[in-house]
Specification:
plasmid; 74 residues; 0% strand; mainly alpha; 78% helix
């Protein structure tokens, strides 16, 4: 699992902010579809992936804001 998480994180690091936001939104939508369909196991797996992307996105925002978590001008 650690190798998979690292690979997802590396892919997220290579994404632009817009690509990362799009990927997170798509994963969230699919996760909801799976939950509605009753497939909580698959939804849980996607949630793990989504959290890796969210954590990378948070770090990106933090770096851009000088460590304060708020991007100037937003």
């Amino acid at each position: 699992m650690e190798d998979r998480t690292r690979a997802i994180g590396d892919a997220a690091d290579a994404m632009t902010d817009d690509e990362l936001e799009t990927a997170i939104a798509a994963l969230h939508a699919r996760e909801r579809e799976l939950l509605v369909a009753g497939d909580s196991e698959a939804a849980s797996a996607l949630m793990g992936t989504k959290f890796v992307l969210l954590s990378r996105g948070s770090r990106s925002i933090c770096r851009k804001s000088g460590g304060y978590g708020v991007v100037p001008g937003r």
